[in-house]
Amino acid sequence: MPTLALISKDSNVYQELVRTLKGTAWSVEWLGPEAMDDSEIHQEVVALDAAHPQAGVWGTPHRKPVLLLVGEAPPAGSDELGDDIVFRPMRQDELLVRLERLRACTPLYDLRRQYAKTFASMAPGIVVVGPDLKMVFANPRSYEILGHREETIASDDIARVVSAEALQRVREALSQRQYPRGMDIELVRRDGTKIICSSSFAPLIGAEDHTVISFEDVTDLRETERELIKTMEFLESLIDASVDAIIATDMEQRVVLFNPSAERVSGRHVSDVLGTVKLEDLLGRSSAELVTQRLLAPDHGGEGRLEPTMLDLLDLHGTRIPVQLSASLIYEHGEPSAIVLIFADLRDRIRVEERLAEAQKKLAFTEKQGVLAELAGTAAHELNQPLTSMMAYAELLLRQSEPGSNGAKAAEVLIREAERMAEIVRKIGKITRYETTSYVGHQKIFDLDRAADASTDPGAKG
């Protein structure tokens, strides 16, 4: 049996209500003139006498629907006092219609009545959907986000504003009584444009088959996040693809980034380095301190920067690896927050330079050998002519001298020494290599015999 709670100081009002509702299913309980606290009311509908001296202070919120009983004109602020009005004297048919309508008020009705102003001032859009996913309530912010007016969205299926893919996710979640928080769903505005909204779901208290959905437009935010992720992935790929070792540390010099080239150069795996290895483990304490000092000084590329510097990197086994290092500080809000170091492995370059120096040395030696051979050939050619003349005159002098005479003896000496000189000239003509031998002390002189012999020995070495 439905019950009606009366709040009035006038017993005549109570008697009028009892007479009017006689023969109906409704019963009336007079709570007394002082029963103004919601917590004391357990009946389904409240009848409030507008003439009650304290009626004006009994404003919202109400836990029960309120029928305001008015004698003549409605009092000021009657919208705040009750949900419906009936004038005295009351007709039974009119009173029953209003009572049944108030009795049929759902928790959603109370939600609208009690919190309409609060919902209207909230920044997120708020929509209440029934078990059939029809929208039974939407606050003004939701109209703004979706580009609708109240009359174009009320009592409509959310399929009108939710994309097909997102709708499927929503249906699955609600069918399993799951109420996700912060779920991104794609909504469709009235003009057809699609937006991304971060949405949260919750059951409506007192009507758990209804669901409250709050949402905010995060389209620009998600686009910014996508661009940041795209940029971050590009930078990560760039760092990973770099042939130079790239390492980053925090200001406590703990390694926070270690690219594949750094792994290859140092022989250390990234999982063994991040957060555990410090810069001094990679460079040695003195070199790490040197890098830090130069980064903070303006004399080595500018403050916060270190121009390319030759240092040694320590590999996993402590072996020193020659590298060229450049570094810079990363600043956040004007304060240094990280150190980035780029290493170029110099081992291949040093090997190439050593081979080049050796090749240049060999080339210089070969050029010296060629010059020496040409000089020797020229000298032999030029010396042969005067030497031939000397030998001819010495032999003529010997024939014209008496045997055993001083002239003959001198001629024989001349002939013998000329032949010796001829042998030397012959050796000079055969020189193709530069050979030396020790002389007095630490001096070196040209080894004519070895140089001449080398010209006839293909396996000889210089």
Concise synopsis of the structure shown:
The longest helix is centred in the last third of the chain and has 54 residues, at 347-400. The chain folds into 4 domains: 3-105, Response regulator (Rossmann fold, 3-Layer(aba) Sandwich); 112-221, PAS domain (Beta-Lactamase, 2-Layer Sandwich); 242-345, PAS domain (Beta-Lactamase, 2-Layer Sandwich); 362-456, no CATH class. By secondary structure, the protein is of the alpha+beta class.
Index terms:
alpha+beta, Beta-Lactamase, five-stranded parallel β-sheet, five-stranded antiparallel β-sheet, 17 strands, 24% strand, rod-shaped, disordered C terminus
Architecture blueprint of SSEs:
Layout: E1 3-7, H1 11-20, E2 27-30, E3 45-49, E4 66-70, H2 78-81, E5 84-87, H3 92-103, H4 107-120, E6 125-129, E7 135-138, H5 140-146, H6 150-153, H7 164-175, E8 183-188, E9 194-204, E10 207-217, H8 219-241, E11 245-250, E12 255-258, H9 260-266, H10 270-273, H11 279-283, H12 285-296, E13 305-314, E14 320-332, E15 335-345, H13 347-400, H14 406-429, E16 436-438, E17 444-446, H15 448-456
Parallel strand pairs: 1-2, 1-3, 3-4, 4-5
Antiparallel strand pairs: 6-7, 6-10, 8-9, 9-10, 11-12, 11-15, 13-14, 14-15, 16-17
Helix pairs in contact: 13-14, 14-15
